[in-house]
Amino acid sequence: MTSPVNVTVTGAAGQIGYALLFRIASGQMLGPDTPVRLRLLEIPQGVKAAEGTAMELDDCAFPLLAGIDIFDDPTPAFEGTNVALLVGARPRGPGMERGDLLEANGGIFKPQGQAINAGAADDVRVLVVGNPANTNALIAASNAPDVPKDRFTAMTRLDHNRALTQVAKRAGVPVSEVRKMTIWGNHSATQYPDLFHADVAGTPGARLAEDREWLESTFIPTVAKRGAAIIDARGASSAASAANAAIDHVHDWVLGTPEGDWTSAGVVSDGSYGVPTGLISSFPVVSRGGSWEIVQGLELSDFSRGRVDASVAELQEERQAVEELGLV
Ligand SMILES: NC(=O)C1=CN([C@@H]2O[C@H](COP(=O)(O)OP(=O)(O)OC[C@H]3O[C@@H](n4cnc5c(N)ncnc54)[C@H](O)[C@@H]3O)[C@@H](O)[C@H]2O)C=CC1
Ligand SMILES: O=C([O-])CC(=O)C(=O)O
Q1: Which distant-in-sequence residues (6+ apart) come within 8 Å of 189 by Cβ?
Q2: Which residues contact 30 (CB under 8 A, 6 or more apart)?
Q3: Which of 7, 151, 177, 284 qualifies as a FRET site for 246, CA 20 to 30 Å off?
Q4: Which residues have C-beta atoms less than 6 Å from ligand 2?
Q5: What is the pLDDT along the chain (328 residues), one digit of tens a residue?
Q6: How far is the centre of ligand 1, averaged over its atoms, from the C-alpha of 15 (Å)?
Q7: What is the 8-class DSSP label of residue 92?
């Protein structure tokens, strides 16, 4: 058996943390042969609850769980970490503008980026889940100058999975037969779920997209506003599905995406598809040899181009706001 992989989870006592940690410890994220050592980071008020979760993790007697440590300081929490899941974030409060939210999260993701820079393992991979995920990932990456930028990613896998199921239901096929879905842009309501390149049980997604009324009035808004719909229904934001998407993202990043398919992730732009270099934007991606690669060569119609550009424009505004705050 290999030596344990150090996995740091921030916001460990939150609702996503509770749905995530048991799946990591059971081997669903890194596979059945890889032991893990969990490093839980919370704010001081969250430490007691994190200790309770750690007791429950112990009580599962997971064969792959090599140890659990709990921290309220990012510097030791990221010491030697191989996989960092940045879940803890400041939620939007009443009367908070987007700028206030970005500033509050800057206070979290800047020191966490610095701590990753100072102490993480050379192979560290970072997934930012906490919102606004793309820009929080940009802040963390900017404050970790010694870590390659492509190690910082933002989660759009939940949006991707939501889109797969909506299409499968529409087409009446098993979700496993929907491939090559793409989420472009920001993990926000401006995101663009792109069906045109998908393969829906052998039928081109473009054929389903010919029903423009369904595409524009049902499919795209259902996926893009699903987070709000879950909050409305559940009285709390998506947690188990978000944890599931984080497991999927890291699993595929480390172990590779299946042949003949791709997935979606917020990765640093190299200028592909006209997305400004350095922005962390969602793209169609495959993982080969432990690295994400942006799928190249997809044709974007004027309709798709407009949608991608609108979401990327929002990412540029967010980048400008955090630049003005001195966070990047
Ligand atoms: N990218 C995506 O697809 C999704 C992102 N989210 C986002 O994930 C984040 C977490 O969601 P939940 O677990 O439901 O929230 P939650 O409020 O239940 O838990 C957040 C936890 O983070 C902790 N925390 C706050 N600041 C911290 C810091 N500086 N260091 C360590 N821990 C800290 C809090 O004490 C709390 O325990 C939110 O920002 C939410 O909007 C949620 C669903 C999907
Ligand atoms: O909308 C929210 O607040 C949570 C979220 O990011 C999602 O469910 O996609």
Answers
A1: 224, 225, 228
A2: 5, 7, 24, 36, 83, 250, 251, 254, 255
A3: 177
A4: 131, 158, 227-228, 230, 237-238
A5: 689 999 999 999 999 999 999 999 999 999 999 999 999 999 999 999 999 999 999 999 999 999 999 999 999 999 999 999 999 998 777 777 778 888 999 999 999 999 999 999 999 999 999 999 999 999 999 999 999 999 999 999 999 999 999 999 999 999 999 999 999 999 999 999 999 999 999 999 999 999 999 999 999 999 999 999 999 999 999 999 999 999 999 999 999 999 999 999 999 999 999 999 999 999 999 999 999 999 999 999 999 999 999 999 999 999 999 999 999 9
A6: 8
A7: P
**Residue whose CA is at the smallest distance from ligand 1 atom 39:** 130
Two tokens, residue 160: 């991707």
Residue nearest to ligand 2 atom 6, measured at CA: 227
Q: Is the CB of 11 under 6 A from ligand 1?
A: yes
Give catalytic status of residue 160 as yes or no.
no
Complex ipTM more than 0.95, yes or no: yes
Beta bridge partners of 10: 41, 86
Look at the chain and count its residues. 328
Tell me, in angstroms, the distance from the centre of ligand 1 to residue 299's CA: 36
- Beta carbon of 155 within 6 Å of any ligand 1 atom: yes
88 close to ligand 1 (CB < 6 Angstrom): yes
202's tokens: 């052998």
Residue with CA closest to ligand 2 atom 2: 227
Residue carrying structure tokens 């048991």: 22
